[in-house]
Predict the structure.
Amino acid sequence: MRRTGREVGRCVTRTVSRLRGTGLVLEDCLGGWDRSARVWGGFGPAVGWGRSFRTVSGLYGLDGLHEPRDFDRLAKEVAERCDELAQRLKATPPSARSVYALDEISNEICSVVDVAEVCRHTHPSKEYVQAAERAYVRLQDYVASLNADEGLYNALSEARRVDGKSLSQEGARVALTLQEDFERGGIHLQGAEKKAFESRLSRSLELGMEFQRNLVRPEYFSEVELDEPVVASLPRDLRMDFRNNDITTQKWRGIIDPSTSTSMLRCVADSPSRREIFVAANTGPEPNKVVLSSLINARRDVAESLGFKTYAQFASAPLLAKTPKAVKEFLLTLSEDLKQTAAEQYETLRRYSPHFGRIPSWDKAFAMSQARGYECNLNSAVLSQYFPLDTVVAGIGELLSRVLGLHIEFQDLLPGEGWTSDLKKLIVKNEDGEMRGTIYLDLVPRPGKFNHAAHFVIRCSRMLSATERQHPSVALVCNFPPSSGSNRTLLSHGEVETLLHEFGHAMHSVLSDTEFQHLSGTRAPMDIVEVPSHVFEHFAWDPSALKLLGRHHSTGDHIPDDLISALRKSKEIFSALELQQQLVFALTDLELHNQQRDLSAKAIADLAASIQNEHCMFETVPNTNWELRFGHFVGYGATYYSYLFADILAESIWKRHFAGDSLAFGAGKVLRDKLLRHGGSKDPEKLVRGVLGDDSLTEVGGGFRPTRFL
Ligand SMILES: [Zn+2]
């Protein structure tokens, strides 16, 4: 049985360059997916990615970046070079070479904007962050001007028409996706139509940002009053948010931050108090009723301008699923598939609820926590003793060596290359010593640093000549607790899983063998890009891999078998119930964005409630509205299903190629050869059939869904 202990959308794969054109993918609340402009990756080698044998380096490995003001110069130089390249391209008769020139432009821009993106989220110096933000905004504006350049668009479409046959399969796909991205940005529209499109687009972007802003405004958080013993039962950091302003009462008041409410619900033993906390966390912001309704309707208008009936049609067209019909079929089939197991798991859970009859939603987290403790006998604190950070990283290196035939080595940072003293640098090589790429590990928190787990692309892979490759470089950013004194950092099991997830993204980037940078590594459709990372998560639950990843911090012993069994039981015990909740989010996201008529705030609330009541064992609670706090509507917009999609495909890959002997030498060869090396350069349907077999996808509603749900 699969599960999704991972909160969907938790990881962030960031490749700025690929940011979809139309700007319809907005910034999400957590900095969700690709954030930014679109089509244009970066541009070529002009910025001078340092070659080997250097003794000094620019910051993040970017030559010429030695102090904050260098960002301004680098951004200016890139724009000037791209102007020259664009002029030359437009003045030359269209041919297959035009596609290479566009990829060169894309690579040039990425060389600086990708570094600006990672810098603004990770550099400890304010001056660097500000300079990176200036460069980022400047280049995003520049990208927008290229996306609106009809001369470039015409050159590309002419090149496809007159010389498309000269392109390789990959080149043809690059050209096709570039043209589609141009058109999804409305470049082909004229006059009043274009003006209307631009205004609708701008409105939808503004509404998305307003929705997100409202989520973090303290005035829209709700306050609760709890008894003193209840407050005393909270974890220390959450207890700090409560105050007793009147010593004559035993009541303490505090604001409920929805992002920490589940942690509270897990440990509060009093059901009425849990109800108060749950309702507070799932109420408001009131203004988002109107904002969400306007956003959904504005997006439909945008899609209509581009010839789509619904926004969901627009959003799914370039993805593997292809159509909202296919996505809906996928979600409804999954729902049916889950029902029986979910009902059985619900019965187990009922034993830990104080209520007869149905378990109220506010009791779910507490009952699950109790049940896991009694039924699985898992002691998380004991388990984490086996996961010192340095041991886990070394174990991942060994794992990559065995299953992918790679050689991973730590390398000292060159003077000027690193941005924090905690940074580690890994070099990835093939077995024969051939250099593949660089992975920076920035794993401990510090003030101002990006506060979620993420994979940042710093430089994409691509061919520089027939024999020379631009080596990719990525940063894995996490926030694991720092070691104190002589103590080593010990990871929770969830953190081990997160690190493996990010390494899955890193392998996608580092092992990419594409000729063009535009579709290298993680620049793949959204419902494919999370597949490798989900495959890697499986190692966190696999007994053989766990023996490799974990050693006791003081004795050096392997994790005992009974602890591994308890861990695996805890994964399975409520897997279907947890998946049901994600399915409700995905189905609501799809249905809201698949309407051809205006939706009122009430219609949205009714739709969300009816989906919850039909597809989840836990019913909606009156006077709550989770949908007003679901920031992923903004970042994903009709594609929230993609995490579930990737989860299921990854499980099939695991069972087919890893289960039985997960650490067999070369077990990951198929994954590497059929999926990772291609990035987004092949049709996603062919990629999946290649790695999982012809019958792995079912054609439905003009698109595809996984055949097997396992
Ligand atoms: Zn991810």
The longest helix spans residues 96-122. Residues 11, 13, 501, 505, 530, 533 surround zinc ion (CB under 6 Å).
